[in-house]
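Budget justification note: compute hours in this period were largely spent on complex prediction jobs such as the one shown. Inputs:
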Amino acid sequence: QKEVEQDPGPLSVPEGAIVSLNCTYSNSAFQYFMWYRQYSRKGPELLMYTYSSGNKEDGRFTAQVDKSSKYISLFIRDSQPSDSATYLCAMSALGNYQLIWGAGTKLIIKP
Amino acid sequence: ETGVTQTPRHLVMGMTNKKSLKCEQHLGHNAMYWYKQSAKKPLELMFVYSLEERVENNSVPSRFSPECPNSSHLFLHLHTLQPEDSALYLCASSQEPANTGELFFGEGSRLTVL
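Corresponding output:
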C-alpha cells in the first residue's frame, strides 16, 4: 500500500464549476499537509499549507484535512481555465522534514 | 535572476556519457534538494543539503553524484546512466530542512538516456 494515494485523473470540468481534489494517506503521524500546483513544463509551486486538522481558505481555494479519516481535500471555487494544471498533495510528520508526495491529479478546466 | 534556476532544461545522453545538472537559488535559503519526477509517480527525494552538508541520501545509485559547493549552488553529476533514469530532475530550496513543506522549485531538467 502506498503511503499517499491520489487519483491521477485527468479530471475535466467546465469553467465555473467547483472542483474537489483528494488524497488519502495511511500514516497517522502526518501533521503537515500541503497542496502544490504544477503547470506543464514548470516546477511545482506551493498553493496551500495546513497544520493538523481543519480548514484553510485562500481566495477561491480551500484546503481541508480530516485526520480521523486520513483524508485531505482541495476545493477550487469558480474554476478558471488558468487553474488547469497537475495538483500534488504532500505531507510530513512532526520532526521529519521529508515530504511524502502523492502522484498528482491532472485537472482540466474547459472554457 | 530570481527564484531557482536550473540548467540545462533538456539533456539527452548516452549510457556511457558524463554530464552535470546545475541549480542556482537566489532566495538566500540554506537548504537545497534534488528530486526525481517520473510520469504518474510521486516525487522521489534524492538528496538534501543543509548549509552545504549532505543530510539525506535516499539510497540513490552511485551513478548520481551530488555536489554543493556553497548554499546557492547545487550540482548533480551523472555517469553511466540507465534508460530508466530518464525523468524530470527538479531542484528545490527552502529556508532550512523543515517539515512545513515550503519548498521553492526550479523548472526542472528533462533528462533522456538513450
